[in-house]
Structures are given as C-alpha cells and as structure tokens.
Amino acid sequence: MTLSPEEHRRLAKRYRRRTTLTAYAFLGPNLVAFAVFLLIPVVWLLVSTFRTGGVLGPAEFVGLDNWRDTFSDPLARTSIRNTVVYSAMAIPTVFIIAMILALALNAIPRGGAPIRVALYLPTLQPAVVAAFIFTFVLHPDFGVINYAVRWLGGDPINFLGDTTLALPTIAGIEVWRGTGFWTMMFLAGLTALPGELYHAAELDGAGAIRRFIRLTLPLLRPTFYFAVIFATIVNLQLFDSVFALTDGGPVNSTVSVSLYIYRSLFLFGDIGFGATLSFLLVITVLLLTGLQTYLLRDRK
Amino acid sequence: MSSTNSNRQPSSGRLWRVIAMILACALVAAACGNDDDPGDVSVPAAPEVGDSSSEPAGDSDGMAEDSSTPAPTAEPEPELSGTIGFIKGPHSAMEVEFNDQIIADFNAQVAPDVEVEFSTYDWPVHVAELTTLFASGSPPDVQYLVDLIYPAFAEQGVLHDMTDLVNDPDWAEERANISPFAWDLAEQQGGTWGVPVLGAVYNIFINETLLEEAGLLDSWDDSYESMLAAAEALTTDDVFGFGARTSAADFAWWDWYPYIHNAGGDVFSDDWTECGLVGQDVVDAMQFLIDIHTAGVTPAIGSVDNQGLFDLFAAGRIAILHHETPNIVALNENPPDFEWTVAAAPPGPQGHTVMGNFGILSIAEASDNKEAAWEFIKHWASAPQVGRFAEQVSLQVVRTDILDDLFAGNPAMQKVQSEMVPRVQGLQPSPHIIEALQAAWPVVEDAFRGNQTGEEAIAGMCEAIDGVLAG
User: Fold this and answer.
1) Which residue in chain B has the smallest CA separation from A138?
2) What pairing do the DSSP bridges indicate for beta strands B114-120 and B142-146?
3) B360 with B161: CB under 8 angstroms?
4) Lowest mean per-residue pLDDT among A75-79, B305-309, B335-339, B404-408
5) Domains of chain B by residue range
6) Shortest CA distance to B118 belongs to which of B86, B78, B154?
7) Does the pLDDT of residue B44 top 60, yes or no?
8) Residue of A268, A270, A271, A273 best to disrupt the B interface, most CBs of B under 10 A
9) Which of A59, A28, A31 is nearest to A45 (CA)?
10) Which helix (H) or strand (E) holds B341?
11) CATH architecture of A69-295
C-alpha cells in the first residue's frame, strides 16, 4: 500500500486544492458581502470625491475641487477637531470606569449577576431614548441635576446650551451608554486569565497593584487591542446622540464629522464634498487601526 | 392525486375554452363596472362634502356633479385612473385623517378610479427623506414642499415645471384666487414648481394679563425699545419677559427675519449674488436682538427648545413669545389661565413685515401619472379643501376668495389671516437659502450669547453667506 512519490504529490496537491476550495466556499458569502457593501462603496466614494452631483442630477468631474474645499472649509476643521476631542474624552474615561467596575465584579465571588444586568442596561438604550432620558436629567429648568444644584443654592447649569459644556456632556452620555458594554468585555477578559499565575505572584509577595500592572494589563493585551480599535472606530462615527441632543449646536460646538457629512449629503445636496469628508473618515479609521495594530502588536 | 391529473389531460381543450369564456366575462364585467364604481365610492362621501361647503370642490370641470347636472359644453375627458403617491409633512397629529378626507372627496368628486397613497415625512429630516425618494427614481407623484427647500430640488431637475398646467385657461379663475406674492414664491428659475396652498406665519404670542397688569398692553410693540423695556419690566423670578428660538435645529431664523426685513436687509442681495445684510439699520436690528437676548429677560440661550418655549408661555412663564400659529390650536384646546393674543413684531425703520413661509404642491418629474397628479393638486388647492384643512391645522391660506368665511370663532387665527398675512415678506427662494442660513446661524447663536456686537455678527454672517454663494 505504499504510494509512489509521484502519486503522493498528486494526492497531496488534490487535498490542498480541495481544502482551499472548501475554505473559499465558506468564505465566499462573506467575501461577496464585503465586496458589495464595503469594497465597491469605498471605491465609489473615492470616485465621488472627484465629482459633483450624481444623486439627483448627472455627475460632473471637478478634479480636486472637493479636496481643496474640504481642507479649506472651517466647519470641516471644526467637525474634525470636535470628533477628535470627543474621542479623547470618551474613550479613556469609559475604559477606566469599565476596568474599575470589571475588577470589582471579578472580585465578587457570587451574586454579581444583578449588578451586571444593571450595568448593561444603558448599553441597550438607543441613542434617541438616551437623549430623552438625559433631557430629564440635564434640563436647566426641570432636570434632576439642576434641581439638586438649585437645592444646594447654585445656579442652573446649561449643560447642552453652553458651548464649553455641550461636547463634554455628550461624551458623558456616551460614556454612560458604553460603560456596561466595556465592563462586560473587560470582565470576560479577566475571568479568562490563568488563576495559577496570580497564586504564584501572591506567593512571591506581589501586592494587588503590582499584580494588576505586571500581570493583568499585559495579559489583557488582546482585549485592549480589540477595545481600543473598536472604540476608536465607533467614536469617530459619532452621530446619533449629537443629532438627537444638539444638532451640532450651540455655535457648532458639537458638530461631528458624521453630522457634517450627513448635512452635506442630505441637507445641502453637496455630494462631492460629503463624499470627500466620508472618504477622509474612512482613511482616518484605517490609519488609526493600522497604527494601533502596530503599537499593540505582540512583541516577543 | 393521480386521478386528478389523469382527468385533466383529456379535457384540456374544453378547460381552455372555459377559461377563455371566464376571462371574456371578466373583461365585460370590468368594462361595465366603470359606471358603477363612482357610485360605490361617491355615495358615502358626497354628503360629507355637501355638509362642509355649499359649493362643490371648486373644480371647473364639473366632474363632481356628473350624477346631477353635467356641464352641457364639457367635452368628454379621458378617464383618470391608476395610483398616485402624495407625501407631506404633518401639520397635525391627525394629518392622515385630514388628508384621508381630502382624498375621499377627490375620489367622490373628481377621479373615482385614482388611488391616492398618502404618506408623511418627518420635518426634522424631511430634506434627507425627500432627497432619498427623488434619488430612488420613483418618488411620490405629488409632494408638499416648503419654500425653504423646493428651489434646490427644482434646480436639480427633479420637479416638473408646471407653467403650462397653472396657465391653463380653464384654471385661470382658480389661479387668480391665489395671492400674487405666493405665486412669486413658486415661480423661480424660469419655471413654476407648484401650486401655493398653505402658509405658516411666525407671530408673537403675548400674555395680555401680564401686560395689562404692568400697564404695557398698548405700548409694548410701539418700537424695539419699548418691547425691550416691556420685557425687562415683566421679567421676575418666575417669568421671562421675552422668548424666541435661538438654535438652527428649531429654525430660529424665522424669529430673526422680521427684524432684518424691517431694516431693509435680507440674506441675499436683490440679485442673489452676495450677502444682503447691508446697512446701518441691519446692524442696529442685529444689535437690538443681541441686546434683548443678553438683557436677562429670556431663558438661558440654548436651554429651552422650540416646544419648551411654548410650554413656558402656556404655563404663564413667558410674557412675549415668538412662535408659530399652529400653537393657537393648543391654546384654544387647553386654554391657559390668562388672556392671550397674537401680534407682530414692532415696526422697524424700513418696514413692518411679518415672517412667513409657504408650502406648494409639486409634481415629481419622474411621475408617470402627471395628469392624475395635477387633478389631485387642483382638488387639494380648491377652496373647500384647503380652507377646511387650514382650519383643522391652524395654518394660513394663500387664497383670497375664502377669507371671509375662514376661522369663524377663532379670533386669533382671523387676526393672523387678515392682519398679518398681507404684511408677510417671505424668504428668498434660492437653491442656496437653507445652506446659507445654516452656515450663518452659528454666528447669531454666538452673538446672542453676548460674544459679538451687531456689527461683528453681521460681518460674520456675510462672510458665511458669501462663502456659500462662492460654492
């Protein structure tokens, strides 16, 4: 029953081909969806950055005009700055709070389920519902916080109407919505960590903080890797809470890139300009993802 | 199972003959049924129309009275049939019911075989919705469009130029019943893009009880200075003397416009090629608006939205409030515990205008049933229909022939219709008007917070407006 080398090569080749074809067969639907819903739209988006019109009327080639307009438009710069500032506020804050809560939950031996459910509930709220909820929390006249502020003798705080407070307030609302999700994410990472390492470290005299810095954080690197990339992508697309709560105001202090794209495309019919901003957003997300992948890579 | 198949085979020729006979009978029945259908539809609907108005729908083609007095000279017109879509933003929570009445009358009086599919768009996102519908290639045949947005759609070629339709000699009398200023708003870019039907006037609500107690009822609106003085006198710990919208999300420019118009300014110059906010009067008007918003007589800027402002007025906590006439319905249905009325902004150095914006009924260029769409628009714009709808939702009409009978028992609406509508100066229906307002408004918001003078604000607005016009 020994095979000749020639026959062995032939059978091995057939096996590899069959394996490869099987893999592609399983990947096929996903690749088709990737091409139809991502690759082709992104290529189409790039084409649209060199044109004007094309949705209600015929498209017209305009060269680099849209790119020039995008970089010279002050509101485009404001929207990019707002989005970056918002992300810089929201992402670290939600990670710190979520990590503290995850560590606390991980330390609870039993009975943590109700707390986990309560923590996760805000994540289940759509942005519009959250906006309504926070209207009753933040309103200068009848909001709970301002009621307390007045009771304590202070002046009402105009959270969403003040140009310096509006963006941090929206970041706070998004942190409230995201805390449950990231807590569960970090908790899942913590529960998967090998307990024997912690026992060994404890026997070696490592304290809780030392164990956290030297064991937990390095071991959670894959979780952090996913969390930072995912949170960055999501937060750069800030739209719904701004749309529902401030519509970019006051004085454009909460205009995000996504909101400005929406306005350009659907309110002003400026397809080329909106496409250029959208393409910039896609490229930014890709670059940031690449950068984070590089920075968080597993150094052996 | 098998027996069925075996029986079918030998008799297939006879079966086909039976099917052919059934089809022939169905065709005959369908052809004969045309005579019956109008009766089926119109019988329940006709009495309602008779109740609501002594006149038929105002249509000159006399189709409504085909069962009683057909016009002897009327030539037989082709039967209208098919389905048309109609989309409109809601002016009332009962928008669908009110439009169903109009559609039922249309089927009863004009076109029994035309099915009208009514849908609504959401005002806050209506431009996006309409853009998507037009981009789909199959938008609703008829759209209610406001003057703020239709010019951009007209420019992009998605609206049907209705010049020939509205100039049809058979419709000349109806056309003449619509105010010329309304036609001016619908006739732009060398075409006519719809039939003007409704308007919304942006009035001021005043708490007469508070003003009377302060002895200011007769003098508060003599001038801008007297309004500011009244607002200051009326402001207490519980009451704001003045309120107006301040954010673009609430279309705050409606409350800003009359002061600018009264100063001889406008967003664009007369030829729409540059900023029209020029002159010392415009700067002074802007400075007055900044002063009244920084005088401590209003809710904190940006703290209360459109509905919130009206709720504060209804609760007796704002004395002088810029708002919209549909809220007259709310005040009539739930009368507050004080006397109130409507008013216009005080006169300015160059005029005493009232702001209003208007809606037209347009036909989509992509419509494949423009004939039925036009008949439906004529019906919707006719005196009984548009009059009844305007009363139902507390909006203004642009027809001049129904004013005497309109809003009986509603003095506030009568005052708006008779005293304010004639003084309306609307916006400039440029394709860039909404973008210009959106671009310039943050400057106003900033100024209302006391961060800019009137001169700086006007300069900033003009920079933004000229930027939009420069493309």
Assistant:
1) B303
2) unpaired
3) no
4) B404-408
5) 80-200+357-423, 201-354+435-469
6) B86
7) no
8) A268
9) A59
10) strand B340-343
11) Orthogonal Bundle (1.10)
Choose the closest CB to A56 out of B158, B248, B299.
B158
pLDDT (average), residues B290-315: 93
- How many angstroms separate the CA of residue B434 from the nearest CA in chain A? 8
Instruction: Say if residue B234 is exposed, middle or buried (CB neighbours under 10 Å; 0-12, 13-18, 19+).
Output: buried
Is 0.95 exceeded by the ipTM? no
Local structure of A111: helix, strand or coil: coil
Rounded to whole angstroms, how far apart are CA atoms B205 and B344?
9
- The CATH architecture assigned to B80-200+357-423 reads 3-Layer(aba) Sandwich (3.40)
- In chain A, the residue whose alpha carbon lies closest to the alpha carbon of B311 is A141
DSSP calls for B200-211: EEEEEEEEHHHH
Does pTM surpass 0.90? no
Interchain contact, B135 vs A57, CB within 8 Å: no
Question: Would the CATH topology of B80-200+357-423 be identical to that of B201-354+435-469?
Answer: yes
Separation of alpha carbons B462 and A97, rounded Å: 46
Instruction: Say how far apart CA B100 and CA B20 lie, in whole Å.
Output: 39
Residue A188 burial class via C-beta count within 10 angstroms: exposed 0-12, middle 13-18, buried 19 and up: exposed
Burial of B69 (0-12, 13-18, 19+ CB in 10 A): exposed
Can you tell me which residue has the tokens 């703290």? B303
- The angle formed by the CA atoms of residues B284, B290 and B295, to the nearest 5 degrees, is 125
Interval B93-148: pLDDT, tens:
899 999 999 999 999 999 999 999 999 999 888 999 999 999 999 999 999 999 99
Nearest CA-CA partner of A269 in A46, A66, A61, A52: A52
d(Cα B209, Cα B227) in Å, to the nearest integer?
A: 16
DSSP H helices, B192-339, are 208-213, 224-234, 253-261, 280-293, 306-314, 327-333
Could you name the CATH architecture of B201-354+435-469? 3-Layer(aba) Sandwich (3.40)
Q: Indicate the SS3 state at residue B88.
A: strand
For residue B204, report the phi and psi dihedrals to the nearest 5 degrees.
Answer: -110, 135
- Nearest Cα of chain A lies from the Cα of B231 at a distance, in angstroms, of 20
- Are the beta carbons of B148 and B357 closer than 8 angstroms? yes
Distance separating alpha carbons of residues B175 and A276, to the nearest angstrom: 45
Residue B407: CB partners within 8 Å, gap ≥ 6?
A: B391, B413, B414, B417
- The two tokens of residue A95 are 């990670």
Contacts of B208 (CB under 8 A, 6+ apart): B217, B338, B339, B340, B341
Residue ranges covered by each domain of chain A: 5-48, 69-295
